[in-house]
Amino acid sequence: MKTPRLFCVFLLLVCGAGSAAAQEEVPEVFNFPLSRENLARYNAICALLAEHPVITGIFTQTRFLSRQGRSLVSRGNFIIAAKLGMVWDTQTPFPSTMAVGRDYIIQSTPRGTRTRLEARGDETFLRLSDTISAVFSGDARKLRDNFENYFVESGGNWTLGLVPADRAIRNFAARIVMSGDSVIRIIILREQNGDTIRYELADHDFPGALSPHEEALFSLD
After folding, report:
1. Beta-carbon neighbour count of residue 149 at 10 Å?
2. Burial of 111 (0-12, 13-18, 19+ CB in 10 A)
């Protein structure tokens, strides 16, 4: 499968569609580049985010369409598994499940139909998948290697700003902002065309391992 089609599938499922909502502003952290003075705290936060092999919870995703002046909202459950990838189980407005591994996407429909899209050999998709994994798992090395990093902390809350070094990644997200405390609470992606995608993550749980049902989401077997 060629990159443009795989990207379209990925963006359609991750960015989704939903009901109208108000615009969300992207917070500014880009006046605070990562420096020698705050590097230790940055590394500590990333280590905290990366210490759980499995994280589950619920998400609310808001996509602001700049040219239309409106937003689309979807909600569901998420799984972040360090060794396998991520699952986005959208419940509303249109049920669908997507598992994203390093070199594949598995789509599942409410009727039980499952489709695997292969990305082996597709370097652009592999970089995109690796980047998203680093963002959600707090991989400090990959974040520093693949982004310009900006960081600010106040009152136990932190905000991390990321500008992708890879041009192909910048086509997907020109800037990324994460914020949280002991876990990631908000992730905001600003696209080149002015659109913004905001993820609000809540009800975090750390089961330690995937259940058999959850593990099956990463396979067609």
Report:
1. 20
2. exposed
Domain containing residue 90: CATH number? 2.50.20.10
What are 183-217's pLDDT values in tens digits? 899 988 888 888 888 999 999 999 989 999 899 88
Which sign, positive or negative, has the C-alpha torsion 199, 202, 206, 207? negative
Whether residue 142 is contained in a domain is answered as yes
Pair 34, 42: CB distance under 8 Å = yes
Total domains in the fold of the chain: 1
- The helix/strand/coil state of 49 is helix
97: domain range?
Answer: 3-216
pTM: 0.81
Does a structural domain hold residue 20?
yes
Label residue 27 by pLDDT band (50, 70, 90).
Answer: low
Residue 190 belongs to a domain: yes
**Tens digit of each residue's pLDDT (9 = 90 or more) over 53-77:** 899 999 999 988 877 778 889 999 9
Under 8 Å between Cβ of 38 and 161 = no
- Is the distance from CB of 190 to CB of 173 less than 8 angstroms? yes
Composition of the chain by helix, strand, coil, percent to 5: 25, 40, 35
Residue 192 lies in a domain: yes
Residues in the chain: 221
